[in-house]
Write a structure and sequence with these properties.
119 residues, mainly beta, seven-stranded mixed β-sheet, four-stranded antiparallel β-sheet, elongated
């Protein structure tokens, strides 16, 4: 199972970015998908999560600015980030909680994509 992220980059404060993450491989089903981030010298933290059939969940710091969506048919999750702030600078990691075709429950991670917000 692989998670491939895209969409990171360098932007100015107030700009927007859209991250994408596509899951591929021997996947039977995907339960939750989400985004985490890790800033330099800090622990990895949850940014947003979207279960297969439940309510989305956001970190307080990104509520009303970030929106998580998913395309179940394509095993893809997106993170629309608006009104970016310098404190949003971090490596963003895609996460999926899934079951593979062998019936094994897995936590899969992407390789990370760097988002830098700076003037």
């Amino acid at each position: 199972v692989q998670l491939e992220e895209s969409g990171g980059g360098l932007v100015q404060p107030g700009d927007s970015l859209r991250l994408s993450c596509a899951a591929s491989g021997s996947i039977f089903s995907i339960n939750a998908m989400g985004w985490y981030r890790q800033a330099p010298g800090k622990q990895r933290e949850l940014v947003a999560a979207i279960p297969s059939g439940g309510r989305t969940n956001y970190a307080e710091a990104v509520k009303d600015r970030f929106t998580i969506t998913r395309d179940n048919a394509k095993n893809t999750v997106f993170l629309q980030m608006n009104s970016l702030k310098p404190e949003d600078t971090a490596v963003y990691y895609c996460h999926a909680r899934l079951v593979d075709i062998g019936g094994n429950a897995l936590d899969a991670w992407g390789q990370g994509t760097l988002v830098t917000v700076s003037s």
